[in-house]
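Listing S7. Sequence submitted for prediction.
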Amino acid sequence: MGISRVAVPSSIQTFTEEIFNSSGTWTNPGVRWVRVIAVGGGGAGGTVPGSQTSYGGGGGGGAVVDDIVSVSGVNTVSVTVGSGGATAAADGGTSSFGSLLSAPGGHGQGRSGITGGPGGGAGINTPASGSARGGGGGGAGGNAGLGNGGVAANKWGGNGSAGTASAELTSVQAGGPGLLGYGKGGTGQGTGFSPAAGAANTGDGGGGGWFAGGSGRVIVRYYS
């Protein structure tokens, strides 16, 4: 089920961390509040039509949401870990902690053309406490004079940059940063560059050239 539990010593007390790398069920050990960090799946990178199939922009990183959630009176919670976009320009899946908190997946790089398209925008989420975070936007593809970087969800997520026109299709851009080490935008593709798929359980966007986005993750922390 992909769950690990780690007891971390604190100057005051000890907290337990449960990491869900795949969907499962969280069982309440008798606490009233938990801190949940949810990471949506990353969007897949795009491509261009015709023979130049590798010059697409990177996919957007999944949203990263860090919030305190009340679980008073709750016995179990269904945990969903979003998958990464698996085909060209596909969006990542939403990660959630029941109905209490969710983090949408990043957007796939849906626009493509000979000039290279913009990177996918990051997923967003707005929980009641207003602690939403955003993943990074994807980078633009090679020769992307008209391709802006993906727009991040909000001020916490970085934007992918716009590409610069290049006759050799070599000017690509890296995706924007995410948050807490998760949800980074995918890198655009161009001649001589090798973007990659988003790593598992990072929520990172896939690189241009049909690379898949990384799957998400849900982390539950509570004091005992």
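Caption to Listing S7: primary sequence and predicted structure tokens for the chain studied. Strands lie at 3-8, 15-20, 24-27, 33-39, 64-70, 76-80, 95-97, 101-103, 217-223. Residues 1-224 form one domain.
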